Amino acid sequence: MFKKISLVLFLIISLILAGCGGQSSQTSGGAPEATDNGEVKKIGILQLVEHPALDAAREGFLDGLKANGWEEGKNITVQYQNAQNDQSNLKAMSNKLVNEKMDLILAIATPSAISLANETQEIPILITAVTDPVAANLVESMEKPNTNITGTTDMNPIEQQLKLALEIVPNIKTLGVIYNAGEINSQVQVEILKEKGKALGIENFVEATVANAGEVMQGAQSLVGRVDAIYIPTDNTVMSAYGAVVQVAEENKVPLFTGEATALETGGIGTVGIDYYNLGKQTADMADKVLKGSNPAEMPIEEQKDPQLIINKAGAERLGVTIPESFLNKADQVIE
After folding, report:
1. Do 84 and 207 have their domain in common?
2. Residue 109 · residue 280 · CB < 8 Å
3. How many domains does the chain have?
4. Smallest Cα–Cα separation from 49: which of 241, 248, 182?
């Protein structure tokens, strides 16, 4: 009889402990604390692909939220999805974030924003690293989105970048550009590149279009011997394999310029570019307002205020280019 009672008690205690242990916490510190009104906000993040610029935008966004008092494990939960540049992943992940009723979703890069916009017109969507939200049909205008979408654009100062390239390599008459023609953001940049470039005296443009990261090296190789320099816009596909472009350019001593500052850590000569970490923080400031009740439809799309002059001195030397001291002295950052 005693054994039976002991066995029953053991089973009851085991079930109680199992019930307690089965509840998973959002962070290692336990369940999130509520906000002052008792609510924990759910934040979704959908990123197109991993590469330094988009990663920096995400990190800046999370740090910016924290600076505004929104911290994972306290008053927000964060669900991060990375589509690895796969359209089917984008659709499935967008659907998941919408179905799980996020309070706000950050879309990193144009394809992520388009995918989310197709899934919801109700949940606020904050965009970053999106070049032209109007051309992408995400908003009605930069000044007044009039949709559930607002955020920041990473439209490049392309004219300034071309002027920089021509000051360092004055003999550029034929410029090569590598991009994914399926990315609306890249299409917009290439059209601007041609318009501004012709006005500055660049006579010809040779385009190498790629469909995926695996084609980037071949695209770069196709430009060798045909161009005086190569320019890479803020193209997500090419940037995910930017190292291959650097390799080809350095092996063949082809001057390489990029629209993306973070890429210069890998190689290239220089840019007047956007700091994606700061762009992410700027987006977080806007997200803070939305979480506190502001209407995205009434919030203008913002640009980064201070593009930086970044020079990669060591990268230029590997390409056979000497940077004038005047550029090194006025650069915001010099990579040795």
Report:
1. no
2. no
3. 2
4. 241
Strands 270-273 and 308-312: antiparallel
CA-wise closest residue to 256 among 229, 280, 226, 281: 229
Q: CA 35 to CA 58: how far, in whole Å?
A: 23
pLDDT digits (tens, 9 = 90+) for 229-287: 999 999 999 999 999 999 999 999 999 999 988 899 999 999 998 889 999 999 999 99
Kindly give the pairing relationship between strand 41-47 and strand 76-82.
parallel
Structural domain for 260, as ranges: 158-273+308-335
At residue 30, does pLDDT exceed 50?
A: no
CATH of the domain at 170: 3.40.50.2300
Whether 202 and 94 map to the same domain: the answer is: no
Helix, strand, coil abundance in the chain, percent, nearest 5: 45, 20, 35
Residue 21: inside a domain, yes or no?
A: no
Of the chain, the end-to-end C-alpha distance in Å amounts to 81
Kindly report the pTM of this predicted structure.
0.77
313/302 Cα distance (integer angstroms): 31
Is residue 18 a part of any domain in this protein? Answer: no
Helices (H), the chain: 2-21, 52-67, 87-99, 110-119, 158-168, 184-199, 216-221, 236-239, 242-252, 276-291, 313-318, 325-330
**Within a domain: 247:** yes
Joined together, the tokens standing for residue 262 give 């973070």
Q: What is the 3-state secondary structure (H, E, C) of 141-157?
A: CCCCCCCCEEEEECCCC
Check: CB of residue 148 under 8 Å from CB of residue 122.
yes
Sign of the Cα pseudo-torsion (224, 228, 234, 239, in order) = positive
CA 168 – CA 261 distance, rounded (Å): 17
